[in-house]
Amino acid sequence: MQDVNRRFDDDELLTTDESAQFFDLSKSFLAKARRKGTGPPFIEIGDRLIKYKKSSLRKWRDDRQFLQSRSRRK
What we know:
Low-confidence stretches: none
Oligomer: single chain
Strand content: 5-15%
Radius of gyration: 14 Å
Structural class: alpha+beta
Largest sheet: 3 strands, antiparallel
Number of strands: 3
Order of helices and strands: HEHHEEH
């Protein structure tokens, strides 16, 4: 039963406010990252409504874990 609940939870769509809280970031950071194409994947609903899939937020976060700083990775 836990796996089924987790799947539904991962499919949950979050607003920009909720997504910013999920990461403890500002809404403006997410807006800038959307424009640059460097942020988490998002869904546009209509002309103005932006939603983020919770599983996409987790994957984007997890893909940004590093063992050393960027300057040392070269």
